[in-house]
## 1
Amino acid sequence: MSSHAAKSGEVRVRFAPSPTGYLHVGGARTALFDWLFARHYGGKFILRIEDTDVERSSPEMVEEILEGMRWLGLDWDEGPFFQSERTEHYRKAARELLESGHAYYCYCTPESLKERRDLAMKEKRNYKYEGTCRRLTSAQIEVNEGRGLPRAVRFKVPESGTVEISDHVFGKIEVAHEQIEDFVLLNSKNHPTYHLSVVVDDMEMRITHVVRGADHVSNTPKQILLYRAFGAEIPEFAHLPLILGPDKAKLSKRHGTTSVTAYRDMGYLPEAFRNFLALLGWSPGDNTEIMSTDELIERFSLDKINQSNAVFDIQKLDWLNRQYIGASTAERLAPMVQKALESKHLWRDEFNEAEREYFFATIDMLKSRMHSINDFAESGQAFFTDVYEIDEAAAKKNLKDPALKELMPLLASRLKAHDVFSLESSEQALRALAEEKQVKAGLLINAARVLLTGRAVGPPLFHIMVQLGRERTATRLERISTLTFHQ
RNA sequence: GUCCUCGUCGUCUAGCCCGGCCUAGGACACCGCCCUUUCACGGCGGUAACACGGGUUCAAAUCCCGUCGAGGACGCCA
């Protein structure tokens, strides 16, 4: 790492969401990268809530964001700090700028500004604040003040020259001062605006690295100008490429689900989701895809972040999720499966007590073919309740042979007749019956699976039988006589 | 309209900075085959990309210029 980290010895990064919505995928990715960076260098990860826009911010959204971060395991070392509680700091800073001649009062009304902007837009002209109030004489100012006109505070952007951003991801970016308008620092209600509060906070919180989305690149020159005006040290910047929807536009609500907690509710594992996010815009440089948290922290580096935007590919997320589910222990999965069952009213407390072993064994049996945690409650429902549905297509396919109406109960009685009930004994019983009745074993196997689980697909039949136990297996096989749709 | 950025398989990417090892590697998805009582898992194989045009060079995905395409930002929002 260059200058800052080396100099101060401590990396300090912040994630600064605005609580005008839930934690979305893009924000989560930013938070993850900030967090990984801080952890990699043993630095501090600071959480700051940018709620200066009181009208659009809400405490519920703050809680939502925190919940999303907790779910992803992104723990913060300091904060959350709320900008709404720091207004005085910003006002004081604005006063300083006014006194040092880096800012001025502006009496233009928002309405007249909007008019001018709209007109420019209509004429397809570029609009930039023309600096009317920047050139006010002291006499004119006195008049305005005397009339008690509402005033905003604007930053005085230098007339000529350029600002250079040195970005860890994009390299050098140069912007001419004349491209930057005199932006508002304090609005006419004396409330700080984004640029002011960010810079003041980043200075006061001694942020060494600003790691944020690339949608902030164009804000950076203004902020650098502010640091300079304050005579402060400028942090290092790393702008992250954007996450796009399938149509290649910045990912947003209209692309479907973007809330992080919604992914939790859809049955994704936080570690899978985190791994997936890490791979969006970053790669370790070799072909490694599945990485533990420690590995991610260990291998993460700013210069491996790439510059082009990335499309959110849910299929890859699904794949990762399946990988993680398959590799997880039943113990890890159990609490999540419980939640999924609860929401489908399939949960019974016995699963954590007398039937705990059964519950865990079922998870182990099913996990290799589950794409999400919610699948346990859907394709796996027959293992948790006796009132499972029987898939019609499956029944049509595997129960249509009329002979089955006799064979299945027969199989049930054979199973009951054996003194042992095991993988071997049940298979033996079924195959013996098939041979005796001159039918293919597959006919009985596939029919039995549908009867036992309601599905044509699932674990190997004899595993299902042993898992369900002799009694339930027999009962379910006999149920064929009560079914009507197979004729 | 102005400014900024990006451009390798459908998607995520490695390679690019420091030209030759690239007849461009991996992964997801897709398609075959194997395994198999189904579906998964797993294994093997396949289709598929350097946006385009110039230049520099013995040699360019890699360096330079241009074109085109895409995205982002242009608020008294953040």
Note: Confidence is low (pLDDT under 50) at residues 1-6 of chain A.
## 2
Amino acid sequence: MDEKRKAPKLRDTATVVPLPRKPGAALTITDVAEFAGVSKKTVSRVLNREPMKAATRAKVEAAIETLGFVPNVQARALAFRKNFVIVLFIHDSTSPMAMKFQRGVLSAIADSELALAVRPVDRESPDLLADIETFLGRQKPMGAIFLPPLSERDDIGEMCQRLNVRYVRVGSAPLDMMSRSVWSNDRDVVTAVVRDIVARGHRRIGFVRGPSGFRSAREREAGFRQALQAAGLPVDEALMVDGHYSFESGVSAGAALLDAPHPPTVIFASNDSMAAGVTRAAHQRGLSLPRDLSIVGFDDNPVAQQIWPSLTTVHWPIAEMGALAARKLVPDMLLGAGEDAADLPSMVESTIIPRESLGDAKQGKSE
Amino acid sequence: MDEKRKAPKLRDTATVVPLPRKPGAALTITDVAEFAGVSKKTVSRVLNREPMKAATRAKVEAAIETLGFVPNVQARALAFRKNFVIVLFIHDSTSPMAMKFQRGVLSAIADSELALAVRPVDRESPDLLADIETFLGRQKPMGAIFLPPLSERDDIGEMCQRLNVRYVRVGSAPLDMMSRSVWSNDRDVVTAVVRDIVARGHRRIGFVRGPSGFRSAREREAGFRQALQAAGLPVDEALMVDGHYSFESGVSAGAALLDAPHPPTVIFASNDSMAAGVTRAAHQRGLSLPRDLSIVGFDDNPVAQQIWPSLTTVHWPIAEMGALAARKLVPDMLLGAGEDAADLPSMVESTIIPRESLGDAKQGKSE
DNA sequence: TTGTAGGCGTTATCAC
DNA sequence: GTGATAACGCCTACAA
């Protein structure tokens, strides 16, 4: 009785007017199949772009079009044992970079079936791995993206492989296999920036470090040292102070450098928040910028444009990295016909953004 | 044959050692049911907190615990026709507020089964409604949250009701039924701020508007006018200029006000980005802040602390609003045993954050 | 209060 | 290349 219930109903309507089997309910592949005169499985094959006869495909696609059929994501998720979701794991922080990255991911998946889920986790927590595993186990996402400093942990990558979850690790250096990495050339671009600084006559260059344990901090410091060496300048450890990527730590670092007996003429901070802090420390001391002190940052945060003077900085192409990470993660869903995942780059170039905060060294002060 | 296949297998193992029916597969409620000696439906009832005998519940919960069973979200989603997801619709912008709000939502759902999906949409697009409808139709979320300016459109709310999707509209004034609204008291707090400004001796108060069509902009302007009226001050339309909530529009607005023949001694900008722009315009003109000009903003963005001088502003409790919105949206999942959705507030108080940018009016300049 | 049968919309298996 | 039938893991309706 049940088996026969639908068929008659359908024959009355669907062959003429596209109507769902039940009033109020959405269309299913069964409707499409009947309308196109094929089996459910054939419709499924079209949805999943499996190889088939062109004519059949065209027929089904026409049916989908005229019926306005939209596949049910939940049902596919159940059958696939995968959710149509990308998870972005971020270390719980107020980082504007995480948001920029997120925007990049969203732009890449905007027209796809995919959704982005954001999951903040605490890298200090002893339950970090368990938290991530639970979330992945629940959501069964198509892929996961890890931002620094989470991305720097190899054990997270290994866990994903064990759980059979695709992932991409994002950072300031290659952290995993090419297909699982997106990174920026922090070291090289910092070297280039410092070269510019030296070319402007500066000899005493202060450096504010990022937090220890962050790969980005190490890379940027390495680039700094490399540039000094290349320029034949000594590395003065007294001009290198610690920071934690926070505005407040930038204020402290700036204070330490500026109150020293022989302060630098320019300070490079390993990110913009700290550069803004250094700027504040300079203002507090009545310095005129960039006349008395030049400041250079890294990130190209919104704040870089909004402080006075506006900050010469490195544009960290984090949004592009987000889009790239998404495309590497699910190439079959996000890449067009002609594109090939193997052609996707893994490294994205940072660029120097000249603004107001970097000036020439004063005559008397250089050297 | 098929029906019997599982049972014998299970009886051998599950009663002694908790093992999934198939090697490598996850446990299902069937496993839990057999282990606890009840039916699948009973386990389902426990998962959904339906009323049942305490002893049975305890037995099943013990089984879930010892087996480490985690329900399959996709299967539940398919059966419920609802995904365990909250969607946050944001107008595509670089707003730091959207991210703060997001953090609030995430904190509220952190320990639940729910995930947060973020969906940027373009409020200018003619397809706005269709875009949202498509996304809701695909994801079938447990609820949707709309941030300004999307939240100000009644048609979006009506569409959600038609689609049977719960929603919350967030804004600077009540926009919908209490149970579907979360808002802040923008008007009142601006009135209070302006009262403070007047108390400091200022009489010529500049005002930078938000974009027309934004409810928040109207509310903040209304609060401003109200305060002037209450103080017995005239409203000088020449001191009120337009802005778009952007840094650049703040620079232009600041320039317009400061280059006028008789400039104000203090400028209130309707958000912090514009206040930062006004600050820049003042710096460019060589003004000393707050001696020559006081500036007050609204939002308490990160930039408010990082510019020089730091910005006296209104703390817009957007993260709290995010957490509140989530809890109102799915109270049965996010509220504790003793809590009641009816007790949740709808309005969140903004507070004034005194920093450096607001000073007393100079003797000669006041009036 | 608990259990049984059937369905949610899709994909996988394995014939044809 | 295409189709019938059985999963996928849970919930709803209804029966006991």
Note: The two ends of chain A are 95 Å apart (CA to CA).
